Amino acid sequence: MFDLIVKNANLPDGRTGMDIACADGKIAAVEAGITAEAKEVVDAGGYLVSPPFIDPHFHMDATLSLGTPRMNVSGTLLEGIALWGELKPIQTVDDIIDRAMRYCDLALAKGIGAIRTHVDTCDDELKGVQALLEVRERIKGYIDLQLVAFPQDGVLRDPTAMANTVRALDMGVDVVGGIPHFERTMADGAESVRLLCEIAAERGLMVDMHCDESDDPHSRHIETLAYETQRLGLQGRVAGSHLTSMHSMDNYYVSKLIPLIAEAQVHAIPNPLINIMLQGRHDTYPKRRGQTRVRELRDAGVTVGFGSDCVMDPWYSLGKADMLDVAFMGLHVGQLSSRADMAWCFEAVTETSAKIMGLEGYGLSKGCDASFVLLQASDTIEAIRLRAHRLKVFRKGVCVASSDPVSYQITAQGREGALDEARLR
Ligand code: FE2
């Protein structure tokens, strides 16, 4: 007797008509035609069952703060940082917790099972850290939250940022962050990367830096991050987030740089929605695109996962915790249009990002956590095309969110009937 069997599911690897049996919060079997009994049986109806969506880059301390205290008029990263600086002193720990919890309800409903969020450590009270440590505890039954100590105003540029970042790590923040391109000089940026990587090495932590988030073709902090990763033996534990300057770099230099990133096993986390909005703001026409060289990094063997970055905050007014929106935008901006490339974009918001976060028990194999999402789509490419509706979200064998299928009622004369856009073919 199993706890749960999901019957007739399509899987991301292309298998169809599969049953998934679950017991004690784990997947016990993935086979066709399981006949054993279960306390709960769910008919997937030939729709896709995927492991949970994973968001490897987010800013939960700022989410849902849109318009407080004002809007970002220029639409640039730098005005966003200035606006966030106006909000920080006037928000309370409870404000941050309240917004984060509401966001996590939405993320859960959208099938997100884990989030890596940066949390600003340039605040002597560490309000964001206090808040998100509390949120991490409150939501652990349904979302894994990984916190990155993020000195938003520059760990060297802000006089108390280093001490506060270390204090945040002492309080239980998981990962070391940074923002070298926001330091006063290129030299200070490189120095910040060195110091922060040394802290991670001493403490045995992962690193995830905002790196070269600009259109400056001469920004070189990802090179330093790869170098420090190699020097300190941090291979496989370091990610560079954004990396947008790589879009504008000289091709010859990139031909040297990408193999260095791959050699150091530094992961890349582009954030397609936000950077297509923020980058290229100083260009006339043609305008540069705000995305790093996704295809080239991937083809060189770099692990590339897409992050969402922002939802309704000083940097981005839109967003709805939908990692399929993220994949959709990443696919378009990267012109990843072959069948294999589109399927890869789905992986970039699921298993690849789980790997970057170092999640255990992730996947749809026997022995993995019985955590998965039933989508109203037949396969992963269809899921991206439709930004498919989430029908059921399971966490360790328990349904934690659900909704009715989307169905349109056609009443036009001669075509009356129900339309399921996921079953057009
Ligand atoms: Fe970010």
Structural class: alpha/beta
Q: What is the molecular shape? A: globular
N to C succession of SSEs: EEEEEEHHEHEHEHEHEHEHHHHHEHEEEE
Give the radius of gyration. 22 Å
**Order of strands, widest sheet:** 6-7-8-9-10-11-12
The CATH homologous superfamily name of the largest domain equals: Metal-dependent hydrolases
CATH architecture of the largest domain: Alpha-Beta Barrel
Give the count of structural domains. Answer: 2
Unreliable stretches covering 5 or more consecutive residues? none
Number of strands: 17
Average pLDDT: 97
Helix content: 25-40%
**Cα distance, first to last residue?**
37 Å
The biggest beta sheet reads: 7 strands, parallel
The helix count comes to: 13
Task: Just give the CATH class of the largest domain.
Answer: Alpha Beta
Beta-strand percentage? 15-25%
CATH names the topology of the largest domain as TIM Barrel
Ligands and ions found: fe (ii) ion
Model description:
33% of the residues lie in helices and 21% in strands. By secondary structure, the protein is α/β, with parallel strands linked by helices. It has 2 domains: 2-51 and 363-410, Roll (Urease, subunit C, domain 1), CATH 2.30.40.10; 53-357, TIM Barrel (Alpha-Beta Barrel). The strands form 4 sheets. It has a 7-stranded parallel β-sheet with strand order 6-7-8-9-10-11-12, with helices on both faces. A 4-stranded mixed β-sheet has the order 3-2-1-4, with no helix packed on it. It has a 4-stranded antiparallel β-sheet with strand order 5-13-14-15, with no helix packed on it. It is globular, with a radius of gyration of 22 Å. 53% of the residues are buried. Bound molecules: fe (ii) ion.
